[in-house]
Design a protein that fits this description.
2 copies of one chain form a homodimer. Chain A is of the alpha/beta class. The first copy, chain A, folds into 2 domains: 3-121 and 277-325, NAD(P)-binding Rossmann-like Domain (Rossmann fold), CATH 3.40.50; 126-275, Dihydrodipicolinate Reductase, domain 2, CATH 3.30.360.10. The first copy, chain A, is 35% helix and 26% strand. Chain A is built from 11 helices and 14 strands. The first copy, chain A, has helices spanning 12-23, 74-83, 98-112, 126-137, 153-160, 176-183, 192-195, 210-218, 236-242, 276-296, 318-325; strands at residues 3-8, 27-34, 49-51, 64-67, 87-89, 115-117, 141-147, 150-151, 165-174, 196-204, 228-233, 248-257, 264-273, 301-303. In chain A, the strands form 3 sheets. Chain A has a 7-stranded parallel β-sheet, sandwiched between helices. A 4-stranded mixed β-sheet of chain A has the order 8-9-10-11. A 3-stranded antiparallel β-sheet of chain A has the order 7-12-13, sandwiched between helices. In chain A, helix 2 (74-83) links the parallel strand 4 (64-67) and strand 5 (87-89). The first copy, chain A, is globular. At the A-B interface, helix 1, helix 3, helix 4, strand 13 and helix 10 of A face helix 1, helix 3, helix 4, strand 13 and helix 10 of B.
């Protein structure tokens, strides 16, 4: 079975999905759908570009539409809208709004008899799965999530909005002592500041007040004020030469014990990624395969990674999976 | 819903399951079933002990029977036999015989409208899941599995069968340089010898020929001859004092890249376990919960971890799972 994929939105994540779909032996990339003028969008692989409006007439041409919009304003509207016409996959990550998003998407998908997979990626997504598996196996324990070392695009954007800043990259970095204590099964209580530090590389306008910029960054609520933050001013050339990529990663560490406390167990799932959007795009692509299979079996409604048997992510048969991976 | 559990077999694994079931808020331990005389079996928790023969009359009292026998001779017979009467879970780990075991169990479970989950534990089981997830996300990559540092019960038993040996503990140890190369994404080709070493602690009979014992161990085909093996003779007191536990662990490391090779990604899942049988028993217990839920929904047949949506392992509702783990 060939799964025909559409991609809606063509930023970094859309490009990551494009690469993953083109590499999948069982998928065909129908096209990129954009809210921009299609003539202005050049695709990496030469994939065809359509206007997002064309989707209305292409419901029979696409098996799964992968939604590569942002969680703040795009996906809350986009996912229910397109779940009413297509099987869809998104990477919605605004944790507090998941119940509302799930309910809206579930209603639309059920009415249309489609599958909508929400909140996939690595966190939420693979990290969530590891938290669930660990808690289900060992009820008496505690999970810790560390992010980084990696570029936070949200934090980089926040710095860019400061007056006098030309460009910026923000790295989230786990505190080594905290990581070690957790890995040793010490179950420490950790504050936000004790878990991560934030490193900022900032290109300022000529003549800008660097002390003011540094102060504004370090005191920014939610983003930086609860962290030990370092600010390093660099040139635009240095930024391009040393900070062009979007590496990321992190670890979910679960520290649990047997029922009577007689034995301790530490479970760790960790990622070291050269490219956050390419890895995330690969995960969305695997869940698109699952969405197509589930819908072909007659299932519908909103799903998360928790609700999908792992075999659905693979292009292989049950027999092949048992042979190769069991 | 309370899931009523029976445990068949009461070795180390059966005791691990007993602890996990007693700790689960949604489970009730009906009893331990043994092929020994029930009067001779003392349970850790005071659970009731029955003869295995009593199972024939208890099909209405047990929702899931957890089979704690060995893969060599017990499970190939036991799992199909009991899948004809109960939902069952086993830890079958003879890789080459999985297709045959799956087919036999599937037939019995389907005819009886029961669920049979086979080959659960951490390897096969959680490690298998991690191999599948990683390959499904990044098709272009390679997985490596390292076991240890931990006690291999099979290798310890093999040493005990040598003439002049009173007792023994064998530790499987990953080679640090191999682990590091894999973690760095170097995708090395590794021989058996390059991946693991084997450390043997042996208590010999008084006057035994130590040189002969050491030679027999090191030259034992399949078990030791392909490895760098060290043999250390110790006293029975030392063995009890320093090697009483059954710790284990290991890592599945997947090293993959994006479709065009422009970015590399390393995924690692690792375990550090104080007690192999207690951790394995906890996994079997979580899959017993899944078996009961699946069967209550009307599903039947043989399943592996690949076929079971992760949410089935948890006692929580979908809403609670999304709230706590997403």
């Amino acid at each position: 079975m060939t799964t025909r994929i559409g991609i809606l939105g063509y930023g970094n994540l859309g490009k990551g999905v494009e690469k993953a779909v083109n590499a999948a032996p069982d998928m065909e990339l129908v096209g990129i759908f954009s809210r921009r003028n299609p003539a202005d969008v050049k695709t990496v692989s030469g994939a065809k570009v359509y206007s997002a409006n064309d989707l209305d007439n292409m419901t029979d041409d696409i098996d799964v539409l992968i939604l590569c919009g942002g969680s703040a304003t795009d996906l809350p509207v986009m996912t229910p809208k397109y779940a009413a016409k297509f099987n869809v996959v998104d990477s919605f990550d605004t944790h507090a709004k998941v119940p509302e998003h799930f309910a809206n998407v579930d209603k639309a998908a059920k009415e249309a008899n489609k599958i909508a997979v929400i909140s996939t990626g690595w966190d939420p997504g693979m990290f969530s799965l590891n938290r669930l598996y660990a808690h289900s196996i060992l009820p008496d324990g505690k999970d810790y999530t560390f992010w980084g070392r990696g570029v936070s695009q949200g934090h980089s954007d926040a710095i860019r909005r400061i007056e006098g800043v030309v460009d910026a990259r923000q790295y989230t970095v786990p505190v080594p002592a905290a990581l070690e204590a957790v890995r040793n099964g010490e179950n420490p209580e950790l504050t936000t500041r004790q878990k991560h530090t934030r490193e900022c590389y900032v290109v300022a306008e000529e003549g800008a007040d660097l002390a003011r910029i540094e102060k504004e960054i370090k005191e920014m609520p939610n983003y930086f004020s609860d962290y030990d933050t370092t600010v390093t001013f660099i040139t635009e050339e240095e930024l391009l030469a040393n900070h062009a990529g979007l590496p990321h990663g992190g670890s979910v560490i679960y520290s649990g014990q047997s029922a009577d406390g007689s034995s301790k167990h530490v479970i760790e799932y960790s990622l070291k990624l050269d490219s956050n959007p390419e890895f995330t795009g690969s995960i969305l692509t695997a869940f698109a395969r699952a969405a197509a299979k589930l819908n072909a079996e007659g299932a519908n409604g909103c799903k998360t990674a928790f609700d999908i048997a792992p075999a659905y992510l693979s292009p292989l048969s049950g027999e092949e999976i048992r042979h190769q991976y069991l």
